[in-house]
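haha ok so turns out i had the wrong file open the whole time. this is the CORRECT one, sorry everyone. sequence first:
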Amino acid sequence: MRLVTLRAATLRHSGAPVLENVDFHIDRGEIVTILGPNGSGKSTLLRALIGALPLSSGTMEKVADLKIGYVPQKLHIDPTLPLTVRRFLSLPKRISNAAAQTALEEAGVAGLGQRQMTQLSGGQFQRVLLARALLSRPDLLILDEATQGLDQPGSAAFYQMIASVRRQLGCAVLMVSHELHVVMAASDRVICLNGHVCCEGAPAQVATAPEYRALFGTGTLGTLALYRHDHDHSHDAAGHRHPGTSCDHQHGHSGEPHEHA
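then structure:
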């Protein structure tokens, strides 16, 4: 089932286009990863999908009563505010103890209910945000650079949990990042944004390939992968695309610009 579809969508900020002519869709049960440099429009696309930003042009279709769970990049909590994890989950709407415990278990932090939010590690904090997003039993789970600030093992563990959540709930997962090393072998599709959709395709498991070892080393965790895809255009120095050109390349973990053949 197709949950969300964008057709020829353009989004502007202060009159300037941030995303242009974007076609996008995500289906139930699918994991899609969006990659792109800072300023490429990743967060803008998410804001449009959750209804926080109207399209300047184009169309968006959603299934009726679509439930979206959202895990933000970061959330600041005043360190002087006494706030337990359990109470945090009941803001702004009170939930039952059973619902809170189920969500914490699904996020892999079942024993943290009485901990203070300000005492959590970075990884624990992100899992509590994930638990909160799961309370609505979402059809679509959106993560906006949710591993920002975590080290590589922490990121890998977090995204392993996301794959587990997808299996348990059958929800679609849309993950956004500018760090290419969070691309998972379990992703069904990868979309590269840079003001428009540069390219998209299925990630490939290339852990034994020389290119993979050169970028990640032989000790890289098995959940991480490269993906390979073809462009139907190239970019000039200003980032504008040249129609009718093509390239075939692989991305690494550094978030650096890709090289064209």
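The longest helix spans residues 152-169.
again sry for the mixup
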